[in-house]
Amino acid sequence: MYLFTLLNSISGGHFNPATSVALVIFRGFPPLKAIRYIIAQILGSYVACLLIHAQWYAMIKESELALASVNLLESTLFTSTGPAGAFAVYVLPRSSLARVFLNEFVTDTLLAIVRWGSLDPTSLIVPPSSAPWVFAMALCAAIWGSSGIGLAINPARDLGGRLAAVTIYGKAAIGGKYAAIAALTAFPATIFGVLLYEIFLADYARGESIQSLPSFFLLFFN
């Protein structure tokens, strides 16, 4: 939230690759610049997770030894409550990936609507100074209400953290089929959420031109 507050006016809210892609599609943001932003987002997450591992190394090793002493390390290491779960997102064993995907898609769509509305310069309810707080509250609600079965939200946070977990624990930390859900779902969900906002919630009479929509979607308004 603090980074969003400080840097939103500089980058326009590029802390999530899915948001960067949506800005390319709906706001004409330069694609090559977006690619550089996305690389920076993933790299930043990767480095941050490695720094956390270095800072808390002793405590992490103690927890691993404690779990190994009661023969629980292997079954809990790559779970949301295991040591590797501090860096990458994992789901509980035998979770339904279809339900996990639905949970991720719906939550990411709702967050995209809130994020896009918070960045809308014509919004009378959410001025720029309030945007970080509004999105932070939505993010907290999403985490508290939807993270129980697995919730990645940000592909950069997921990919960077997962790469860090692989660096630390090896290929077993990839996370199986769930890794694809965690890394990719936010992209279609965010685009869908932004499209819903642009079509049903944006007030173009206050200054936003409907011509900002991609030409394909303008067919629905002609």
UniProtKB/TrEMBL annotation:
Protein's name according to its UniProt entry: Aquaporin-like protein
Any GO CC annotation of this UniProt entry: plasma membrane
Compartment(s): Membrane
GO molecular function: glycerol channel activity; water channel activity
SUPFAM superfamilies: Aquaporin-like
Membrane disposition: Multi-pass membrane protein
Lineage: Eukaryota, Fungi, Dikarya, Basidiomycota, Agaricomycotina
Cited InterPro entries: Aquaporin-like, MIP, MIP/Aquaporin
UniProt family annotation: Belongs to the MIP/aquaporin (TC 1.A.8) family.
